[in-house]
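LOG
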Amino acid sequence: MNERERLRDLTDYQILDTAQDRELDEIVEIAAAICDTPISLISLIDDTRQWFKSKFGDNVPDESPRDQAFCQHALHTPKEVLVVQNPLEDVRFKDNPFVTGSPNIRFYAGAPLETPKGNVLGTLCILDDKPRTISEKQKKALMLLAKKVMEFLNARKIILQQKGEIELSAEKLRKLTDNAPGVIYQFEMTAKGSMYFVFISKGISTLHPSLRPELIMKNPELAFSVIHKDDIEMVQKSIQTSFENLTLWDIEYRVVMEDGSVSWHLGKANPEKKEDGTVVWYGTFQNISNRKEYEQTLEQIAFDISHVLRRPVTTILGFASLIEKHEMDAIKLKEYSGYIKTVAEELDIFTRKLNETYNAKKLKLADAGK
């Protein structure tokens, strides 16, 4: 037996110093009943002590030094029940404090708790205060009960490992959502109209510094309180429509910031309906102020081109048409050429100013996006 590996195996079970388990307490009580002994224990041995996970009987401490443990002698025989018929006649135990004093052990039998790796963690043992024997059927019963103990411990170990993996995955997901652009959330509304956020990422504090995830999950009305007064009814109606028709929730609305400025937000979510009528939305919030400003800039450009540039262009086209239709002498051509030059210069000045204006807006948008 490799003691280092055995101790590592024991540590992996995360069982030492844990609270009582009803299932294991019942097993030690059954063991005592089958073997008709006043004491039965589940004992686990670490590097310095034996610790009792479950106890049946009186005058038994929670733990004792390892060098006083009967069970440590069963660590090397995983397939056998260790039986000590009279410790007073056994050189290994005759001076043991549990033999010379309370609980005055005069009989011991311990079935090893063997792990799938072949290590023995301790024993399921029975104790008596008078010398006696144990039948083969009782030995077999102890081995079967010890196997049940290990089935419980192995199942518990798997559950703990899965819980750890779930917690790790949840932590990774939390980090991903917290660092994702915008906000990721889960929102629910019951058939009676009660609304609440099941989850909302930390991005909400970046979107609106006065909002924090833990506060919104306690009071979802906070998320609605920052919506522009002229948009709140539209937002509420859109949620109700999505609830009733299970249609994609996709809406742009304004939000009032702490300094009174206005930002544009985009909300998107896919609804799912539960059996109880509750609708769950999984979606995102994003700040689209830059996009809105960009769209407005494009609209202004289109307006300027359509209205401001139309007059000089029309004038030039008119002069060109006159020149084509009429024969003109050099003096008249020179006169028309002067008109065209004047209009062209006006057009050049205007387009330069237009270019400077939109370059400035472009830089502003770029800085806002950093």
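LOG (cont.) second protein
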Amino acid sequence: MTHGETTKYPRFPNSTATLTTVPKVRLYVERPEEQDTWFVNIGHVTDRGRWRTEPHAHPEYGQVIFVRSGRGVMNLEGSSVPFEGPCVLLLPTECVHGLDYEVDVDRWVVTIEVAYLTQVNGKLHEFIQLWASPRVIPLSSTAESAMEFFGVVSKLEQELAAKAFGHVVATEALLTSLFLMLVRGTQLDPIDNEGATRNEVRLADRFRELIDQHYRQNLPLQEYASMMAVSLVQLRAACAAATGQSPAKMIHARIITEAKRNLIFGEMSVEQIAFGLGFSDAAYFTRFFRKETGQAPSQFRVTARDQPTRTK
């Protein structure tokens, strides 16, 4: 691994190995036979019995699931997270989740195409921060907050169904309102990005997208900067201002996320996972993983799988 001057762990150059331990799920609206280009989809689901999905990820969109009533457990990246309506389950692109709803769950699922989601998130630093991690956001502090959120979701559903004049502008306005309500109701991690310009925020977000595409390939930071048509100095400054992290640290975090997913959900050996992530030696991968997490990969796997509350 040679991601910048601070990285010391060798990896295979341009590794193309693919790990497929987590199913990738696509929506019916992505089928080629669908004539209309979609950017937001909304569905209302009520169940009169238990309903469950196995852990999976969405490669091309994020989701806002508004649970108006009912409860369940979400398997989020291998950990069991209970939820009870009224609440919102915020699921960014590629996050691994499984859902186990109990009886009589009333929910709306808002699905947002990733390019459009990026466009809306560019309106506010906090939107990008909100979508940086999956979340369960309670709406039960007051009855009015749940009713207000339900009102905006209902308007969004009507706008998408009607497709009246200006519906694209109206949809963006309603999504912006939804995101703003979620930001106001969420305790975001403190990041000193008040001084970050909009361009720096967008650069950092674009860098995240490129990391998702290339983190297995051991690209030098200069190549990332070249793809973004900026200098290394600009890239480092944008990442520091918008995220509080260095570019190398952001790459390391993405590698660790994928390593954890494969350790939890897959049956491959540590050596196979290491090679699949582009490392030339399992021992180097183990040292890298221990440095970043405080645990050896095998220890992490045992601990994660032994959680007594983990979704079965």
